[in-house]
Amino acid sequence: MATSPPGSSAGSGQQGAHRGAPHPSPRHPRLDPLADRYAARTHGMKSSEIRALFSVVSRPEVVSLAGGMPAVTALPLDAVGSMIGDLVSGMGAQTLQYGSGQGDPRLRERICDVMALEGIHDASASEVVVTVGSQQGLDLVTRVFVDPGDVILAEAPSYVGALGVFQSAEARVRHVAMDDDGLIPEALEEALLDCRAAGDRVKFLYTVPNFHNPAGVTLTEPRREAIIALAEKYDLLVIEDNPYGLLGFEHEPLRALRARNSERVIYLGSFSKTFSPGLRVGWVLAPLAVREKLVLATEAQVLCPPSLTQYAVARYLDTQPWREQIKIFTELYRERRDACLESLEALMPAGTTWTRPDGGFYVWLKLPHGLDAKLMQPRAVNALVAYVPGIGFYADGSGQEYMRLSYCYPEPDQIREGVRRLARVIEAELDLHSTFDAVDTGTFRAVRPDADGRFSGSGTIVGPANSNAYEDGR
Amino acid sequence: MATSPPGSSAGSGQQGAHRGAPHPSPRHPRLDPLADRYAARTHGMKSSEIRALFSVVSRPEVVSLAGGMPAVTALPLDAVGSMIGDLVSGMGAQTLQYGSGQGDPRLRERICDVMALEGIHDASASEVVVTVGSQQGLDLVTRVFVDPGDVILAEAPSYVGALGVFQSAEARVRHVAMDDDGLIPEALEEALLDCRAAGDRVKFLYTVPNFHNPAGVTLTEPRREAIIALAEKYDLLVIEDNPYGLLGFEHEPLRALRARNSERVIYLGSFSKTFSPGLRVGWVLAPLAVREKLVLATEAQVLCPPSLTQYAVARYLDTQPWREQIKIFTELYRERRDACLESLEALMPAGTTWTRPDGGFYVWLKLPHGLDAKLMQPRAVNALVAYVPGIGFYADGSGQEYMRLSYCYPEPDQIREGVRRLARVIEAELDLHSTFDAVDTGTFRAVRPDADGRFSGSGTIVGPANSNAYEDGR
Ligand SMILES: Cc1ncc(COP(=O)(O)O)c(C=O)c1O
Ligand SMILES: Cc1ncc(COP(=O)(O)O)c(C=O)c1O
């Protein structure tokens, strides 16, 4: 059975053709008899237009630089298999039974050990809530804090899955500019002042400080300090989403934002990228009062996370060489990152720019001026290469000139072949558009304040109704 | 490590003392600095007042008739363990990887086979969405249909976990009376007319037709027809929640509501009671247009259900004698039900009445007039027996005289001992209250229209603000 990229909704491909409609309608021609009774929040839920392409993308001849799937086959599958088998045979009364809503206490202890690697030494297991992936963690935090119409600050671009959560909470998203050094503190302060002036309630800042999805950049040390200082100054709650923090290629992990402030930072973690996403084990670290509400929210949502997968992770951390395994993963991703960057360097036409990640899964690529990654996508798939168009990562419909390339899953040779195909598609596109004279030299780096000292492209607050978010693109 | 009843939040027991406050506050005396920024939906989220008792209840000397935990140790744990171990060793690339939001196609096929046992023969795998337990299924359906203030019809009493979902959706719940034959169609019609007259929008009826939690009763065949007819007449959407349908002691499963109408009935299923709750695998069967929205909602909530647990269930259905296993479970539960009913019969003081389930996990007991199950609870725990007070199963704070007894988990001897202790507590309570003269002969059966032909106790619509729901009690 083919594995499908997350969110690709394999098996429902026949719905693809109807995805553009505001109320996706079933295949049979009758109108949806329930059309008038859906909740308001569903109106903003749009299925990805690239989903229809996924049946194509999963053909073996296509090189997919689209999905964010970790290289799980690099795990010692036999050892993990017998470990999990033993858990069921020997501890079935626990692993097959309901557990607590907050999650297995033993696992929560071990999660504190994991967080210590990023400088969080004061976390206690009682402040941890185990979630069904960090996706559920983000959904719970959003449920607990956000009423319809509330403002959330989020990097431009932002993780598509987060925008999906915010949209289904009917929040308004205000993007904050970032550059190669991550979120720009001055842009954050500007956003906070704007919101204050407009009387808008900012519920929190959502940020991915390490090896950003999709931008591939990492928040520098001085900026971490600056952002914490702004959180203090403006009484700002920060949601630190950190699934990739331990996957750095060049240096030790930077100290988490949460390590610098335990009251204003809620931390989201995940075992999806350091162990296995198929187990769906993530967590939230939050002050006790918030933790309390998160537990109530998760009980109403799923009763409790799966016991088996929690025991599997706890046992894995207890008995397997997980730190060494993370090294194996990072070596593998570093090699793939190198293959990706080297071939981009060698093959991309002038005017194409991209970020240079030193960890994680993603390169963020900007097309030459005038090109549109989404319009180009069918031609790329025709040329047997796939990527995720940038617009999915913006709540305001911008980002047309960007795309995300994931180097985590394909082998280096495939990556090189994929980039080669992509370069040809871009060249053909440039020919087609006859835009040779309009090559733009702006890079992602070049996010600079305008003459008034303001950061362009991050000023509008985008409500759920006119939002263009929720493209696939983990 | 002790297994804790679902929702018992083991490991956070130290919070218990503060549970009564509208905003549960952390132990340290400082005020919650975030208190002013929670979402409106959190105000109705109340933690269970009986949670604090669970640390007591889980002491081995206490007979707990409180939890709804299935007897998972009756499974062939070695066979299931090696089956799951093999899945990871042999298919790690799939079982440890992200999957599709809708769920594994192979599992969805097998789910259709399971539903055929209850007369649903027209379901297709494309209409099935796999969920993290049927709890998540109910949460997704509620998210897709319910705006704050919308009315949901639900049996009086109703499954506490459903009331928790409705409360966190800020819905208003209107209870509909039931008796030993299940939901009363005339009471349903009355509720629909009342809502129509009041201009209230009824989003759906939530019903548990088989071996009801907590009432232990089953909707009869003629009432099934009557309710489907009312759904047609009043354009009513019905949510059929059916985790216990295959656990009947006396006869073949009754035909599901969904088998009678595929357009107005959304069906929720679960493997929690027929296989294992620790895997958290449930599903929703819904018309394609709804299914489409459910997939978007689940992607925003958890990305996808765990792959490993889905593969485990599919492989279990493919390779293990699951129908025979269900027989083993029902034999075991029947024996426990008998132990429970026989000792109730032998030991309960006059004026105590109870339902006689012919399947599932629960007996619904009514105390002699004047007694309050919740007030009595600390004394019961002192006497080393635990149950769930009835008020948790009503959104309107009624049900004081009821309690739920679960016979699914303890051995028959323990059940007999538990009932013996409970009988003594009730007798002592009667002494204490000197209410020997006020013994009430009303039973649960005796829900009858009043002189005006109206059903008492089901007329008020209860909003989230004054709701008393979300007691523990699965
Ligand atoms: C930034 C970010 N946050 C959260 C997630 C969700 O991860 P999971 O739910 O698998 O833990 C992802 C997955 O790609 C991600 O990139
Ligand atoms: C009526 C009812 N619905 C739903 C559930 C939730 O079950 P699951 O474990 O599938 O989430 C329960 C659990 O006890 C139940 O009794």
Automatic annotation (TrEMBL), chains A, B:
Which stretches are tagged as biased composition: Low complexity? Answer: 1-17
Q: Which UniProt keywords apply?
A: Aminotransferase, DNA-binding, Pyridoxal phosphate, Transferase
Q: Which InterPro entries does the record match to this protein?
A: Aminotransferase_I/II_large, Class-I_PLP-dep_aminotransf, PyrdxlP-dep_Trfase, PyrdxlP-dep_Trfase_major, PyrdxlP-dep_Trfase_small
Recorded hits in Pfam families, A to Z, give: Aminotran_1_2
**Name of the protein this chain belongs to:** DNA-binding transcriptional regulator, MocR family, contains an aminotransferase domain
From its record, what is one biological process in GO terms?
A: alpha-amino acid metabolic process
Q: Which family does it belong to?
A: Belongs to the class-I pyridoxal-phosphate-dependent aminotransferase family.
User: From which source organism is this entry?
Assistant: Blastococcus aggregatus
Q: Is 4Fe-4S one of the keywords?
A: no
Q: Which residue ranges does the record annotate as region Disordered?
A: 1-32
In its UniProt record, a GO molecular function of this protein is: transaminase activity
Quick check: keyword DNA-binding in the entry? yes
